[in-house]
Predict the structure.
Amino acid sequence: MGIPLTNGVDYHWLTWQYNVPSVTRYVGFGYGSALANAASKYYISSTWSTLSSTPLAFILYDGAVAKIDTTPGAGTAHYVGRSGTQFEVGNLFRPTSDFSLTKIAIESGAATYGTQPMDGFDVQIRTGTTIGGGTLLGTGRVDVLSASTTHEILFLTTYTQECRGRSQVSNAWAGESSGRSAVLNSHAQEARGLSRVGYSSYSATARGRHALLNSFSVTARGLSRVGYESFAQECRGAHVIYNPFDATARGIAAIQNAHTSEARGLSSVLNSHTTEARGLSRYGEWIEYTQSITEHFRIADDSLARYELYEGVDVNPDFTGSAIATSQTLPFSSTITPGVTDETHKYTVLERNEYNIASLNQSSTDFVLDSSGDVVLSVPSSPVSVSLIDGINGTVVINASYYYTDDGTSKADEWLIYLRSNGTDPVPGVDTPLTQDIRTSNGFSYLNYGISGVSGGSDARLILRVNRESDSVTDGNTTVYQLTTAATPSTPTGTAFGGRTYEAR
Amino acid sequence: MADEKTGPDAIRSYLTGAASDGAAQTDPDASLGKFRSASLADFIGVSAASLQTGIAVDFVSGNCETGSASIIATDTTSLAFTAPGGSQGPAVTIANGETKILLDGTTSSKFVRVTRSTADNLTGTATLTLTDVLNNVIGFDNVDSTEAAAGDTEYRCISVKNENAVDAIDLKFFLGTLGTQRTTDTAQLAASGADTIETSGSFADWPDQGFARVVQSGGTLREIVYYASRTDTMLTVPAAGRGLLGTSAGAGASDDTVDAISALRLAVEKVIRDPFLTTGTGLDDITTGGRLTDATATAAYQVKITTAAATDQFQWSDDGGSTFNGSDIDITGSAQTLQTGITVTFAATTGHTADDVWSFKAGFEATDKTSSGEGSEPGASGGADGAAFVWGSGIASTDSLFDALLANGYQVYLWLRREIPAGAINAPSVLQLIEMNFDA
C-alpha cells in the first residue's frame, strides 16, 4: 500500500521526482492543490527521488489514479495504466500498453498542452478504451496534432462511446462525438460540435462544425466542412464542400464544385450548380469589380469672358501663348511695335466665354509694316477659278473667286472685267472695264456676273482683275479666257405657271 | 461572363426622376430622385471609327481611361476589346441579335457592351475614341457666375441596380482621388482663414484648382478645403475655401495627409430606409430589414409602441400613421414582418415607452425632389421622406456608407451633393470621380 499524502503540502513539483517501486503497487504523483480533486485516492509507496534521464515507467495498478500536471521531462518515460486505472492529465500523457478498461481524462483548460515536448510521443488508445464519461473527466480535449509536428493521437480501432471536447480521431468511431473533433476515417453516428471528419465517409449525422474530407451520406448540421468527396444528403449550417453534393445544403456553405440540389443560407459555390440556391449565396468565381464614374462640369468666371488679340510676326499667331490685348467689347485697339525691317504682322481675335472656352477661328488678318510702322501695301493676289460660260439669250457668265484674306491690308475691293466679243484680246489700260464691288464673306469673294448682248457665234475673250480703289493698284493679271458662244443662243426653259412646262416662244 | 448584365456589367447606374420605375427621363439635371429612369448614366463618351456596320457600342465602363481603345474581330463571329493602356481581352462569340460584354485583357473592370445586328461575317478592327463626359449626371451642370459668386449646392440622384440574375455582394460607394496622396509636412493650414498647404512631395498631378481632403495621421478626417491655385508643392486655400463639405476649419499637422477629391459628398437611400424616432424619447432600438417583395409597395411606415409591459407591444401603419394594423403585436426581439417583405426588429422585448413612434419609408421610389429643384436637399428634415441623409466623403471602400449585398433586381439610390464655395474658380473643367466596388 502507498502512503497517503497531504494535499497541497507533500506534492510540490512531484513530477520532477519519482518513486522507484520495488514491490510498490501504487504510484501517484501530482502537483499542489490539483490533488484536491481526489485527495483520498493518491498514494505513494516510498521515498521520492529526483528524476533522471533514465527511462521511467510509472505503473498504476487496479484502482490507482494518476494526475500529471506538468511536463515530466525529456526522455522516454512511460505512464502505464492497467485495467481500472485512471489518468488525469494536465499536460500530456503517454500510455503505451494494456489499456483495457483504462480511462483517460484530459483536464479542460489544458491549453498549454500543445507547447509541451510531445514530439517523439504517440498516444495510443487501444481497443475498449473509454474516452470521457467518468466523474473526473468532464469535457477536456485531446489536441495533440496542434502541438506535435509528427505524431497523432491514434484511435487504433473504433470506439463506441462519446468523445467530447476537441479531438482528432484517426479511425472511425461508432458513437457520438461532441465538441471539436476531427475524424480521419468514417464514423457511423452523430458527431457534434466542431468536428473534422476526414478521409473517409461517415454515415450518420454530423453536427456542429465539421470538416469532412470524404463523403458522408447523412445529415451534416452546424458549421461543417465537407470536402473532397460528395455527400448524398442534407448538409446544414456552414459548410465547405470541395466536391459536388446532390442533396440539400443549408446554412452557410462554400461549395467548390457543382451540386445538384438545393443550397440554402449563406453559400459559396465555386462552380455551377443546377438547382435552387437560397439565402446569401455565391456562385462561381467571385470577382471584385470597380466602376469609376467620371464626369466634368465647369464653373463660370466672368473675368474670362472677353475678346483676345493674338499676334504672330512673320508666323501665324500662337494661341497657346498670351493675348497681346484683351477687351470686354469690340472694337478695341492695340499698339504695334514695328521691326527694323518690313514684317508681316498677323492678328487674330478670339472670343472667350466665362467657362474659359475660346472661339475656334484661326485665320489672321495680316499687315506688312515697315520699320516706321507704316503699312506697306502689296499687289493684291489674282482671282482664281475663273470661268467664262455661254449663257442664255446671248449672255456670257463670268465666275471667279478671290481670297482677300490672303492679301491682308493689301486686299482689293473691286473686280475689273475686261471683255471683248470680237475675237481680240482685251487690253487693260485701253479698254474700260466693267466694275463690281468685291463682297467679302468667310475669307473669300465669289463673282458670278452675266454680260448680255453677246451675239451668237461670237469669240468672247476675258481678262479679269481685282483692284484696290484706294491706290488703284490691281493684281496685273493678263490671263485671257476665251469662249465661242453658240451660233443659236439657247432659250430658257423651266417650270412656271403652276408647275407646267411651256415651250419658249 | 460575356453575357450582358453579368460580371462588371451586373451593376448598372441609371438616371432618376422618372414618373415610374423604368420610365423615360433623359435629362441628367432632372435626375432628382423619385423613380429610376430607363436612361443609363453614361460614364464615358465614345466615338468609333471603322466600326463595322451592324456592331454598336452600347456602353463603355467608366474604368476605361480616355484615349484610344479598339474592338477587333478575331474571327467571323467573335470580337475582342482592348482598353486604352490595356491589352486585348478574351474573344467573345456574339451572334446576330445578341448583346455581349467584351473585357479588357488586363483589367476585367474595363469593358464595353456591344450589340450585333448583322448577319455579315465580323471583320476588321475598329478604333474607339474615349473621352470624358461634360455635364452628365455625375458631372452636374455648369456653375454660372452668379452661382459661383454666391456658392452653390446642388443634388443629383442615380439608381444603382443589380441587373444580374444573382446577387451582387459587397457593394460600396466612395469618392475617387484625383491626384497622388501627399503629406503636409512642409506647411499646414492655420486654424482658420486663408493659408497654404505645402508638401515636400509634389502636387504636379493634382487639378489646378479643386478640393483637398486633409486627414490626420490616425485616419480621422480633419478638414476638406478648396484650393484656388497650386504649384507643384503648394496649395493656396482662400478663406472661403475652409471647412467645406461638412467639415470645420482646423489647424493642420505636419503628419496630415492630403488627397485631391471632387466637390462631392455621397448618401445612400435604401429601398427600406432606416427608421427614426419621430415621437417620444424612449428606448430607440428598432432596425428595419427584409426585402421588399412588391415594387408597388412604396409607403410611409410607422411603428408605434402600444403597450409597455413585460413584453412590449406595437402596431404599424403603412399610410404615415393615419391608420394602424389594429391589433397589438408582441415584440419578439427577432425580425417581425410587417408586409411585403418589410421587417422590423426590436433589440429588446421590453423597456420601450408607450406611444413612441418610429417612421421610415420603404419602396422603389426614392425621395422625390423633382419638383423642388436641384438645390433642394433630400433628407434634410426627416419627416415623410425618411431619416435625414448621412453624407459621406470617404475615399476608401472602407468609408462606404453602403456595404452590403444587393439582391438581383434590386436597387439603391445614390445621392450626390455638389458643394461649390463662394468665389470658387475652376477652369477649364472640374472632374468628378466616384468609385463603386462590388463582387459579382
User: Anything to note?
Assistant: Residues 1-157 of chain A form one domain. Chain A has no helices and 36 strands. Chain A has four domains: 1-157, 177-289, 302-369, 384-484.
